[in-house]
């Protein structure tokens, strides 16, 4: 490909980043801060899922500000400091790796929690608690903070950008890691979303269609009520007959007394 064409493509990319990234940065920060304010309300903090959404929004804030802001600075100044300042390169690589993994982790927790809370098992629903969510958040942050330490070790400033050295074993590891974590996140979210829909569908069916036990109880109740109703009807007829006999006797007695 001609160098002039490559140069034009590069200029188009720079222009897109220059005008697109600020909009993404502003809208992304506004949306995530709004999520934190909404889910951080006192009445919503009792919900386990609210804590996961707050942590998810914080992860997205870090991810947006690291990636978008760095691109805006590079395109505005024309100087990519991440190509020759190793500390900035490693800091951005670690922040990107950590925030990206945490975002996917909290998305998985949201899907699993929705499945648990819609389950028909009371024991499983009880597992969705604030205490468990706090434990999962703390342990998850610690785990991914330690796991992401490979980024500042492996990423190096190069002539292109701050990336893993091309053709190295670490570059191969980063590719495999990205594929495995992305596919695993997608599978977990898909599976538990389907299970959640199944739980909701089963709950609706149980509310609409009576179970066999309820039907048998209803039949037994009707069988018990029917004889009682027949007995009451017979007693009512007998009382009416006695009442009419009494009226007939009293009428005759009054006629005799008058005569």
Strand content: under 5%
* Assembly status: single chain
CATH superfamily: Rhodopsin 7-helix transmembrane proteins
Cross-sheet strand order for the largest sheet: 1-2
Indicate the overall shape: elongated
CATH class term:
Mainly Alpha
What is the number of independent domains? Answer: 1
Major β-sheet profile:
2 strands, antiparallel
Which parts are unreliable, with pLDDT below 50 for 5 consecutive residues or more?
none
Number of strands: 2
Alpha plus pi helix count: 8
Organism: Adineta steineri
Main location: membrane
InterPro entries: GPCR_Rhodpsn_7TM
Subcellular location: Membrane
Descriptive notes:
With 259 residues, this protein is mostly helical. It has one domain (3-212): Up-down Bundle (Rhopdopsin 7-helix transmembrane proteins). It is built from eight helices and two strands. A two-stranded antiparallel sheet has the order 1-2. Strand 1 and strand 2 form a beta hairpin. Helix 1 (3-39) packs antiparallel against helix 2. The longest helix has 47 residues, at 212-258. The chain is elongated, with a radius of gyration of 37 Å. Residues 31-259 form the G-protein coupled receptors family 1 profile domain. It comes from Adineta steineri. One of its GO terms (molecular function) is G protein-coupled receptor activity.
């Amino acid at each position: 490909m001609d160098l002039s064409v490559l140069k034009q493509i590069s200029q188009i990319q720079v222009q897109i980043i220059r005008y697109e990234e600020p909009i993404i940065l502003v809208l992304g920060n506004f949306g995530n801060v709004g999520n934190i304010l909404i889910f951080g309300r006192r009445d919503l903090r009792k919900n386990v899922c609210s804590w996961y959404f707050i942590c998810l929004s914080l992860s997205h804030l870090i991810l947006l500000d690291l990636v978008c802001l760095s691109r805006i600075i590079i395109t505005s100044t024309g100087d990519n400091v991440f190509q020759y300042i190793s500390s900035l390169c490693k800091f951005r690589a670690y922040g990107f790796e950590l925030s990206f993994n945490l975002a996917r982790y909290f998305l998985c927790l949201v899907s699993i929690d929705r499945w648990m809370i819609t389950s028909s098992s009371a024991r499983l629903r009880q597992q969705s608690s604030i205490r468990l969510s706090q434990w999962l958040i703390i342990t998850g942050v610690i785990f991914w903070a330690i796991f992401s330490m490979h980024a500042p070790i492996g990423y190096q400033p190069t002539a292109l950008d701050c990336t893993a050295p091309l053709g190295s074993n670490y570059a191969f590891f980063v590719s495999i890691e990205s594929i495995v974590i992305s596919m695993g996140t997608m599978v977990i979210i898909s599976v538990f979303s389907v299970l959640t829909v199944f739980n909701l569908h089963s709950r609706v069916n149980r509310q609409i269609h009576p179970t066999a036990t309820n039907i048998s109880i209803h039949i037994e109740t009707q069988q018990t009520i029917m004889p009682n109703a027949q007995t009451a009807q017979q007693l009512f007829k007998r009382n009416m007959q006695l009442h009419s006999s009494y009226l007939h006797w009293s009428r005759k007695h009054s006629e005799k007394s008058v005569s």
